[in-house]
Structure formats: C-alpha cells, structure tokens
Amino acid sequence: MSSLAALRAVLDPAAIVTDPQVLAPHLNDWRGKHQGAALALLRPRTVEEVSAILRWATATRTSVVPQGGNTGLSGGATPDASGAAVVLSLARLNRIRAIDSAGDTLTAEAGCILADVQQAAAANDRLFPLSLGSEGSCQIGGVVATNAGGINVIRYGTVRDLVLGLEYVRADGAVIHGLRPLRKDNAGYALRELVIGSEGTLAIVTAATFRLFPRPRVSATALCGLASPVEALQLLALLRQAAGERISSFELMCDGEMSLTLDLVPGTALPLERRHSWYVFIELADSDASGRVGELLTETLGTALEQGLLQDAAIPQSEAQAKAIWHLRFAVAEANRRAGLSVSHDTSVAVADVPAFIAAVEAMAAERFPEARTLFVGHVGDGNIHVILLFPRETPAERHADLGHAVNAQVFAITSDFGGSPTAEHGIGRSLAGADVACPAGGARAHARGQAGFRSARHPQSRRGARATVKQPCDRGKSPE
Ligand SMILES: Cc1cc2nc3c(=O)[nH]c(=O)nc-3n(C[C@H](O)[C@H](O)[C@H](O)COP(=O)(O)OP(=O)(O)OC[C@H]3O[C@@H](n4cnc5c(N)ncnc54)[C@H](O)[C@@H]3O)c2cc1C
User: Fold this and answer.
1) Nearest CA to ligand 1 atom 9
2) How far is the CA of 22 from the centre of ligand 1 (A)?
3) 393: burial class by Cβ within 10 Å (0-12, 13-18, 19+)?
4) Where are the beta strands (DSSP E) in 212-341?
5) Cα three-residue angle 275-280-283, rounded to 5 degrees
6) Bridge partners, 222 (sequence order)
7) Fewer Cβ atoms within 10 A, N terminus or C terminus of the chain?
C-alpha cells in the first residue's frame, strides 16, 4: 500500500488534495524566493485528524510542512523540491473556541485569521494587540510558530508574551492539551515556550489561549520627518518621558524605503510637505477615554521641533488620515516584493545600538555593494531593524545566489559584532537554515536549529535514522536570502 493510500485509510479522503492546481499556491513562499513540491496537501478539520496525520507521517517517515496563511518571510512553510513531503494546512481548524471577558482571555484555533481574532476581541470590547502587515491573511498557528512581532511589540511584547496556554500535537501524534488560561503556573516546565517560535520543527500548534487587554478609547498617530536614527531615539526618549506606556508603536523608515513604497504601492501618499532622510511612525493609545493622547503627542512633538529633533510632523485629523499613514508602513513588504532583487534581513540589536548598527551596514554596503540601494525599515522601539539591499533589476540571474550569500555574510558579521540576532521576528525558515550566523548567547548557531526531526544543513548525516518528521530538510543555497 502506498503511503497516501495508508493515509486515506485513517483520514477523510476529502482532506487529502493532490490536484496540482489546488496544490500550486501552497508550494511557493509569499516573497517568491522558494519553490517546492509535495506529495499532497492535507486539510484536516479536527485536532484528532492532525494527530492521525502525524502518526501516519511518523510510521511512513514522511516529512510534514505545516502551513498557516503562508505569509512567512523566511520560506519556512514551503516544502523542499523532492516532492516527498506533505503540506499540512491548518486553515480549516478555524473556530474561536472561547472568549472569557472576566478573565480577559481568548482561545482560537490555529487556522483563525489574525484579523478575525482582533475583530472577535473588539466585539467583546477587548484588544488583541498583535498587529502585522499580513494580519488579513496570516493565521494563529503561524504567528505562534514564528513568535511574530509587529508594530505593537514596544507596548505588548511578541506573541510569546500574549500566549497563556497552547494545544499542540507532537510528531508521535500525542495531543498536548495545554489551553489553560492561568496567569501563574510554576508546576513544572513550561514546554509551550519551546513550541512558540519553533516554526513547526517541534510540534503542530492546533489552538492557543491568549491574554486580552483593555481596548484603547483614544489614540493619536503621527508621521515625523527627521534627519537620522540618532534623532529618532532621542524622540523616543522624550516621548517615553511624556507618554510612558501609552506608546503603542514607534517605527522607523529611511527615505529610500519611503520612495520605493510611494512608487510601487498604489494608494500611498506622503502627508508631509517635503521629503526627509528618515521618518518615524508613532501611535499613542489610552484605554481611558479622557486620556489626552492627542494633546500629549502634539505637545511632545512641538518640544521635539524646538529641540531640533524633528524637521516636520503630520498629525492626522481623522481616522481615515491615520489609516493612510499606517498603510504606508504596512505597504513596505509589498513594495520590497515588487522591487526586484532584494536581499533582506530581520536583525535585532539593542535599541541604543540602532543608529551605530545602521551606520555600520551603510558603510559596509557602500564599500562592498556599491550597485545596491541600502534600505532600512523597522520596529526601532524594540530594536528590530529590517535591512534591505536592493540590486538593479538587470542583475544577471546567475549572480543572485552568490550576491545573497555575500550580503548575508557581511550583515550577519555586523549583527554579531553588535551582539544582535539575525532574526527578530521572521524566524529561520529555509532562508536562514544552514546560514553561518554566530549567536553570542551560548555560541549556538542558526543553522543548528534541528533538534527534532530536522536536518542541519551543516551536518546532513545527523538526520540519518531519525524518526519522525515535522519538517522537510532545508536546501541551502537556492535563494539569495
Ligand atoms: C506584508 C507582510 C507583513 C509582515 N509583517 C510582519 C511583522 O511586522 N512582524 C512579523 O513578525 N512578521 C511579519 N510578517 C511575516 C508573517 O506574516 C509572520 O511570520 C506570520 O507570523 C506568519 O503566519 P502564517 O500563518 O502566514 O504562517 P506561515 O507562513 O504559513 O508559516 C510560518 C512558519 O510557521 C510554521 N507553521 C505555520 N502554522 C503552523 C502550525 N499550526 N503549527 C506549527 N507550525 C506552523 C510554518 O511551517 C512556517 O515555518 C509579514 C508578512 C507579510 C507578507
């Protein structure tokens, strides 16, 4: 009996898709940098079906690539080219199981779209604060598996800070029922912490219980033009003094990235009179309706102007204008995708080191890759800076992989010098798997992420004889990232 025939014996055949047309969108990543093949797409409806799939995969030694909304930026949800893996879509596990207004918690299944979870919380007068440019497509399982960040980390933390309980299925099919809404629990190891951010290498996430927050009653947004990242950090310090925990977003973008976004994404417009070298996007929010966040922001930006930290600022007068400002920020990933050959990074350094890190990357890029435009955008309030080197469209295809590796080596070396991390929120996926990234804390290296059923690119033999498989082996060197 073929392995798929064995699966048909334990899983509703309607959940097993082999039609190439249906499979096709599940075999590429969002950026179009990775392309794979698969035996089938599996679409379970229940946790029991996920468990049956993993038991079958272990018995038949079939690699399983979990996939949520497939918006990941590291290629982790794309199978390899062998065609031997199955893609496990969690999209049909999409119920919000519970909202507890007394305990301020929400329990959602892995296939729920992030925006739907935000709306469900809002309908119960609560805030689910995770917010990403991909929130209309990415799923709960994916954001947990990548420990996603986004624009509100400065105030609410990453997904890890939001998860109270987790339900997941191990490679042997065991279902771990950990959906407890406890705020405090010191009884033994918190194994869920390992699963969060493990990108599908340790288990399949089927549901999570999250903490909710009071819904902001008032908010204020601004887009500021300034001279450099140094002023951006000084502005952040000033704002912290004035607004404290009411700062919910503080994002940085260079003018090159702004240009690209304005040029390539329809519906974007700069609400400032002229261009500036750098921009900061700010949001203050308060759950107290009498909170004076608007005045606070205007006054603080006025002080910043007087102190020479700012060159200009636009403060929207309507929700539509505020949305248009955030559209500019959220459109960056789309602009970069349309721009041609880009090599991008998801670096994290200490907040205070951001200006020096940016200067070091700029100097390196000017010297080593003079043909590239070097762009920066990121969550400066938490030290997460995306570095993008954009090469001319006419760069010959045969140079792409080499350029990617050369840029990576340089940016990783600088990141390491600053004691930073090569991935703040996107994860290792296939893009970084096997990359030689020194990680100062304990000397671990990014390529060595495969404790359970995951082949290290550097030690391919290490998977020989390994048992189960919640991931495909990575294929280094296919992509410029
Ligand atoms: C426009 C845009 C903006 C973005 N902005 C941000 C941002 O600001 N911050 C940020 O952190 N990310 C951002 N991302 C990246 C991406 O949206 C996040 O990584 C998101 O968390 C991925 O969710 P997903 O459901 O699409 O997961 P997928 O892409 O499907 O999968 C991501 C990884 O998780 C694994 N996985 C998926 N589901 C499960 C599951 N149920 N169990 C176990 N493993 C699973 C996959 O195998 C893969 O390794 C952005 C992406 C885009 C396209």
Assistant:
1) 150
2) 21
3) exposed
4) 213-214, 218-226, 247-254, 278-286, 312-314
5) 135
6) 282
7) N
Nearest atom in ligand 1 to the alpha carbon of residue 31 is 53
458 C-beta neighbours (distance < 10 Å), count: 14
CA distance 236 to 15: 50
By residue count, the chain amounts to 481
Q: What confidence tens digit (pLDDT) does each residue in 120-129 have?
A: 999 999 999 9
Q: Whose CA is nearest to atom 16 of ligand 1?
A: 72
Mapped onto helix, strand or coil, the DSSP state of residue 294 is helix
Residues with CB under 6 A from ligand 1: 30, 65-73, 76-77, 90, 110, 132-134, 138-139, 141-143, 145-146, 148-150, 199-200, 204-205, 333-334, 425-426, 429
Tokens of 465: 């004889």
The pLDDT tens digits of the residues spanning 185-210 come to: 998 899 999 999 999 999 999 999 99
Contacts 24+ apart (CB under 8 A), 30-33: 30/70, 30/71, 30/72, 30/73, 30/134, 30/337, 31/73, 31/75, 31/337, 32/337, 33/75, 33/431, 33/479, 33/480, 33/481
What's residue 437's pLDDT?
Answer: 57
Q: Which atom of ligand 1 is nearest to the CA of 73?
A: 15
- The rounded Å distance from CA 260 to ligand 1 centre is 24
